[in-house]
């Protein structure tokens, strides 16, 4: 989700607008869309606005940095009524006359933002909806705190900010009418008075604003709620609140959204953004919401993230279309089905834009979140779930469509204390990570979903998490002696390059499994070896290259000994190997293979010439047998086996 930190990052990219005035006060007219509509790498998503108007109240969820905030602000700028300093709506006679459109542009600050955009081709829609709606916009990413009282303080500020976005109401003729009381308005508009409001006033504050806007404009309000589930997100990751405070906070949010979205005659439509399934908990009392979860709905997904054609369009504009294949390997994989039955793959929009800007394949989750997840790997059950998914084994988890406080607390215990109370906690944790974009749901069954790794970026992130040496030592209960034995056996093999050295390596791998932990999947063995070798050999270069993406799994270069290991892992069970690495090496030769781009990139410029190549196929078979097939410098392959894993 877009945390307060990530929201600040968003604003830092906007050069044409500011969220503060020269005096340091909040600028209630700030618009995130202002800084993007005319950028050279802008992708036009304006037709989303037309789709939104087909429904009443809509909740859209998507993983972090898929453009939720930008799209919401875009819709707001298109739909909101513009007023003069007296609060009178600026009449914008938008029709099909191009001359009239030019006149509108001179009178409307918002209209220029959509010049040349797809939505203006929809002339009838523009005529009927551009600048026609009073808007209330709130951002729940600001609604975080250590306890319920702090949440109330923050929400009073959110309400005051919403009222001050409509400061013109202070001079409205609305107060001449008997049914409207200006004092009620001032209680929320005045920051000092608003700071003293009680809980019940806070619950009704935004609904009261909607009534005033409806009365002033004579039109139903369009409600926008950004980062709806951020308060729950904070509860989970920071574990600050007591259970009672969590319950009070959730109840407050439920009552606020019920007042706003359930049968409210003053609010005709709404759009809420979220990341987690907990948005359904917050909206539990407002049961008239069209919920559009990411990758599981056919109306809105193409407006969030970039389709393949849009990525190519951006690369062509940047003169870098040759980079597409590399980007496709790294970032694609979020697949969905549209209403016409066609399938699309969506790329994370922040990742693509960041690549165009920096040339780096950076991850799109905050480091704080990744660190929290990394801490969970020491738990047996959670680690096993990760490994099963990474090994492409069937991984089905029980699905929860209506979480409660107990789910919030179980996730908080997992992420902050590495505690799992029951098996269902693990299932919900994996579903939680799926909402965050770490997994993709491939099949849905009754109360169950199947998960898989969506793309190379996610694979690399989880690979690093699983590769945590501290987590592995805790999980496997490995001693320093066992780690040294394994890494010494690789160095010994690099020096001697004979069958006796392969036997020693085999013994060291057998020792890894110990009496309680068995390396029973291809990925588990690969991850252990990569992590331990990297820790031991500070002077080596290692590169995890799964068989899903390359001809082998790992390359290990021990520069001092001028030796390159090319390692392939095998395990019993289903695999997705594209080619047999041994046959590939036999056909192409070590020297040719080393020069291929997929392997060449791992060698730093100062690495001495590699004089010896060692191919190893480390295989885990039924019956707990480990086999190592080896070949030195294109010699005929030989195999040694050991049957003592248990």
Description:
- By secondary structure, the chain is an alpha/beta fold.
- It has 27 helices and 17 strands.
- The strands form 4 sheets. It has a 6-stranded mixed beta sheet with strand order 12-13-14-15-16-17, covered by helices on one side.
- The longest helix is centred in the N-terminal third of the chain and has 19 residues, at 199-217.
- Residues 1-30, 544-550, 573-582 and 593-600 have low confidence and may be disordered.
Distance between the termini: 43 Å
* Portion in helices: 40-55%
Radius of gyration: 29 Å
Number of helices: 27
Shape: elongated
Largest sheet: 6 strands, mixed
Strand content: 5-15%
Strand order of the largest sheet: 12-13-14-15-16-17
Low-confidence stretches: 1-30, 544-550, 573-582, 593-600
The overall strand count is 17
Instruction: Give me the secondary-structure category.
Output: alpha/beta
Overall pLDDT score: 79
Short note summarizing the structure:
It comes from Microctonus aethiopoides. The protein is α/β, with parallel strands linked by helices.
